[in-house]
Amino acid sequence: MSDASPILRISALTKTFDDFTALHGVDLDVAEGEFLAIVGPSGSGKTTLIRLLVGMDDPTDGAIWLRDQRIDVIPANKRPTCMVFQSLALFPHRTVGQNIEFPLKLRGVKPAVRKERALELLDLLRLPRDYYSKRIQQCSGGEKQRVALARALAFDPEILFFDEPLSALDYRLRKTLEKELKDLHRRTGKTFIYITHSLEEAMVMSDRIAIMRAGRFEQIAPAEEIYARPVSPFVAEFMGEVNFLSLSAGTVAGAELSPAAQAALAGQSGTLVIRPESLRLAPQSADLILSGTVAAEYLLGSRVQYRIDSPAGELTVEVLREDAVAGVGAPVSLGCDISAVHAIAEAEDAAA
Ligand code: ADP
Ligand code: MG
Question: Which residues, 6+ apart, have CB-to-CB distance to 264 below 8 Å?
Answer without folding.
Answer: 287, 338, 341
